[in-house]
Amino acid sequence: MDPDRRRVQRWFYWGLALSLLLLLAGWWAGSAHTLAIPGGRLIALSRLFGLLATYTILLEILLVSRIPFIEEHFDLHETVDLHRWNGYGILVSIVAHTVFVVLGYAAPGHTGLWHMFVLINTQYEDVLIATIGTLIFLAATALSINIARKKLPHEWWWLSHLTLYGAIILVTPHQLKTGGDFIGHFWYTAYWYMWYIGVFGLLAYYRFVRPLWYMLRYQFRVERVVQEAKDIYSVYVSGRDLDMFAFRPGQYATWWILSPGMWWQGHPFSFSSPPGAQQLRFTVKVVGDYSRQLRQLRPGVRIAIDGPRGSFTASRAYGANNVVLVAGGIGVAPYLSTIRSLMAAGKQVTLLYAARAKQDVSFVRELSALQRQGLRVEVYLQDDGRIIDGDVLLNHLSELTVVYLCGPDGMSRALTRTLRGLGLPKWAIVTERFAY
Fold it and tell me: What is the pTM of this model?
């Protein structure tokens, strides 16, 4: 495993653990005295879950802020999984906070729970708008459950998650103004303000300021659209000083096509051009309305780039002499620049390319040129009854082998299980999955 990647991941988790300890310390300092009061234990628990809700919300924002610290050292599916499970943590914390605060205030006077819920929302400052924010969180979390998420188009799922920013704005004043753990505890208040300013500052820079600066600096525009194979197209992007635009081979970006009907949604596509080229390029497979629009783009349409992103890079082959790249269909795109980087580092590189039929094989000329430079290429066509399975992979594994997987999600998951069954360690399997 790349030692830098492992070290950064360790720092990240230690940082989360330390911040959680500080959260608990501040909660104890502000709530310990309530434990002896009737209903006090319930109130203390409600405050704890309220703080945990805020902690998980800020962590959620940090995970989607695009900071290179996370993007370049965690696989995309790792951050997506962490994002999803942390979202469930938000849901549990918010619901527990609401339940315990109502129980805690209702218990001493034997007040009805619904009456107390209404009373808290009408008599305490900013609580009602926090409740509205909570309902938005509940709705967004419900749409993230697998059954609902798979039925939603990506665009609608993305729009539903934009509402979470509004929910955070609604919830935040309630914590900072009326939170019992903040009153009279300057250091704890400062701690949380630091979290808010730091997280939202990173979000603003990497999600908004940097893409805007890149767009103005490099003047990204569609130059042409080229068909690479059946239903596979490459969008070539021109601009100013594009050889200075920095990304690592194998990375991707979220591309925003600023044309009518498309400007409001961004989609992740890998760079299929090498760094330092005079043009950028990304490649897509036509599978829906959005990708059908991409193949009809006209020259001159402006583009904004949110990135570069991702850890699917040549550095992941640290310490390996033999590198096997497994591509399924359009999954070959990020390899076009990675292959050059790996071969320049003196590694033996083999590409196992799976496609449905001969007309689905992309970048034939480029791959042929790379073959002449030493790349080994094996093409497996489903129509010919050839597939990439355990026997094929076993023939290419040696003691110092790293395998990259990029293709349909089902294929990547199945081959990951196969490779693990063949004894390949987890760190030697590098995957790129754009599942949400």
Answer: 0.82
Q: CB–CB of 303/222 below 8 Å?
A: yes
Task: Pull the structure tokens for residue 141.
Answer: 């979390």
Measured CA to CA, the distance from residue 332 to residue 335 in angstroms comes to 5
Could you give phi then psi for residue 266, rounded to 5 degrees?
A: -110, 150
Q: How many other C-beta atoms are found inside a 10 Å radius of the C-beta of residue 202?
A: 17
Give 235-277 as a DSSP string. EEEE-SSGGG----TT-EEEEEE-STTTTT-EEEEEB-S-TT-
Sheet strands (E) in 356-406: 376-381, 401-406
Strands 322-328 and 303-309: unpaired
Structural tokens at position 236: 């070539």
- pLDDT tens per residue, range 219-265: 999 999 999 988 899 999 999 999 999 999 999 999 999 998 888 88
Q: Give the Cα separation of 145 and 143 in Å (integer).
A: 6
Residue 231 has phi, psi (to 5 degrees) of: 65, 20
* Alpha-carbon gap, residue 148 to 378, rounded angstroms: 39
* Beta bridge partners of residue 349, listed in sequence order: 323
Distance CA 346, CA 83 (A): 37
Q: Is the dihedral of CA 102, 103, 104, 108 positive or negative?
A: positive
Tens of pLDDT, residue by residue over 186-222, are 788 888 888 889 999 999 999 999 999 999 999 999 9
**Cα(150)–Cα(157) distance, integer angstroms:** 9
